[in-house]
Design a protein that fits this description.
This is Transcriptional regulator sugar kinase. It contains eleven helices and twelve strands. The chain has helices spanning about 40-50, 90, 105-115, 165-170, 175-185, 190-200, 205-230, 245-260, 260-265, 280-290, 295-305; strands at about 5-10, 15-20, 25-30, 60-65, 65, 75, 100, 125-130, 130-140, 140, 230-235, 270-275.
Length: about 300
């Protein structure tokens, strides 16, 4: 049985885990992400790799930013700008194979391997967080696009090319929680548990804001479906652990479709379901390459067409 080391690099937290080739998460760790410098950050990763090197068969890394399919070079890096231009295989002091993937695409690969896309031919993963991450799977192949940027749905505009008019801002799960928390004067504006208790209890502002959020996601799904015609959309991110999220999105999608009999009778709606791996999806996706290597090789060719 093989064991892999998976990294999920975030702007605030660095998560890493040991996962075996059967998809069992053996041990998980979390610590603050070093954001002071690239050298300090890479040094910490090397320390972690060395700690587990004798027992692992490979290293998988989920990271914000665009990943070059051939060179594995990171472009951009979200809140970690020093990741721009980084090629981890050149900086990590190990001879082990290393695989790097964009965080949303890693989540999609995880759901393809072990989750809600496992037995699905074509589907879309939507990761609801600070913005909206996405991965598109067509005929069991993850779509990368000519410029390696397929699925960047946060940049979809409702009219103007500024953040206010883009899906990433209009459909931010973090903004949803913070807006409600501020309105209700909660001590912690990131207290998602309390916010969802308010929604479930029928707090008028919380329910209205949540309803608008679900409508935005439903509209995104409707628009993507008209182009892609996939079987299933999977809702991921921490917020997806709240069962009312997928329920609310499904209701909003049904309501939207019913406003047009022409649409509802002409176009079939996709299934909309929750992620099965939730916040661990990026970790599983980071090492899924080692178990889905044949698929991945063909995916990369497709992605570069």
């Amino acid at each position: 049985m093989k064991i892999y080391l998976a990294f999920d690099i975030g702007g605030t937290k660095l998560k890493y885990a040991l996962i075996n080739d059967q998809g069992q998460l053996l041990k998980k760790y979390s610590e603050d992400t070093i954001s002071t410098s690239k050298s300090a950050f890479i040094n910490r990763l090397n320390q972690i790799v060395k700690r587990f090197e004798v027992q692992i068969s490979g290293v998988g890394i989920s990271v914000p930013g665009k990943i070059d399919a051939q060179t594995q070079e990171v472009s951009f890096g979200g809140s970690l700008p020093f990741l721009n231009g980084v090629i981890f295989s050149k900086l990590l002091d190990t001879q082990l194979p290393i695989f790097v993937e964009n965080d949303a695409k890693a989540a999609t690969l995880a759901e393809m391997w072990l989750g809600s896309l496992k037995n699905v031919g074509s589907g879309v993963m939507l990761v609801l967080g600070t913005a909206v991450g996405s991965g598109i799977m067509l005929n069991r192949q993850l779509l990368y696009g000519f410029h390696q940027q397929a699925g960047e749905v946060s940049f979809i505009s409702s009219g103007q090319l500024d953040k206010e008019h883009m899906v990433g801002s209009q459909s931010s799960a973090v903004a949803l929680i913070q807006d409600i928390a501020r309105h209700e004067k909660l001590d912690d504006i990131d207290d998602g548990q309390t916010v969802f208790r308010l929604i479930k209890k029928g707090n008028s502002y919380a329910v209205e804001r949540f309803s608008g959020f679900c409508k935005n996601i439903a509209l995104l799904i409707y628009n993507m479906q008209t182009i892609l015609d996939v079987e299933q959309f999977v809702i991921g991110g921490g917020i997806s652990q709240q069962s009312i999220v997928v329920k609310g999105i499904n209701q909003a999608l049904d309501n939207l479709r019913q406003t047009s009999p022409f649409v509802s009778t002409t176009l079939k709606a996709p299934n909309v379901v929750s992620s099965k791996l939730f916040n661990d999806a990026n970790l599983y996706g980071a090492i899924s390459h080692f178990e889905l290597s044949e698929d991945r090789n063909s995916n990369r060719k497709i992605g570069n067409i």
